Amino acid sequence: MFGVVPKPLWERRIPPDERNRITLALRCLLVEHDDGLVLIDTGLGNKEDAKFRDIYGVANAGTRGPTQLEDALVALGFRPEEIRWVINTHLHFDHAGGNTWRDPAGAVGLSFPQARYVVQAKELDFARHTNERTAASYLSHNFESVPFTVVTGEASVLPGIRCLPTPGHVPYHQSILIESGGERACFVADLVPTTAHLPLPWIMGYDLEPLVTLESKRSLYRRAEAEQWLLFFEHDPHVVAGRLAREAKGFGLVDQVQRS
Ligand SMILES: [Zn+2]
User: Fold this and answer.
1) 3-state class of 6 per DSSP?
2) Residue ranges near ligand 1 (ion) with Cβ within 5 Å
3) Distance 44 CA to ligand 1 centre (A)
4) Is 26 exposed, middle or buried (0-12, 13-18, 19+ CB in 10 A)?
5) Is 2 domain-assigned?
6) 12-47, pLDDT tens digit by residue?
7) 230 is in which domain, residue-wise?
């Protein structure tokens, strides 16, 4: 998760277990829009086998639905059928895995059957044409049966909801900018997966183009700082959101929202 950052530095921020795994969230964002419910990313889903779940230490099983994502919707008083839009930041298994689910009989279906699913056109193409380096992250059962609506580049999905290309992690990764009541929030996904990744050079080893990530972070930070964006962190185990603040050395976070 920390690329070339030496372990003595990163383990102070997120301590690893005896198998060198760290705790990460699979945090999706639900937006209550005038058009209906908008879900940004869908977590990891329930389709992977026991070996996969052990390697990654997946702990997302639901008690009322297939995963904790459906449980969380129920807790808010919503049903999966009420989701009108699903926006994927990219199609890696930990972001699009919950697009579909496996029912008890083993069949795979859409998790949000009434939703319009949105992704970058070139990300869908990239996911369908993998190589030895990219294949392990793009599992076709997360996207092949999904009837996507594709967007290209910076694009408006709904009034107040925009896709912002933030390439580097993958070439067509996008962040989602939300504007409401004169305020802006941004779901930065794997551009800045946790608050430990706020320093510009703290970039994941998973990133295909780390120097592109660096420039995507630099330019997003410029706008986020100038316009006081509330940044949402998909993988941070504790911090849900916060606003960037420039410090003596690099960036810090103010107005932090902690996991309840
Ligand atoms: Zn991720």
Assistant:
1) coil
2) 94, 190
3) 9
4) buried
5) no
6) 999 999 999 999 999 999 999 999 999 999 999 999
7) 7-258
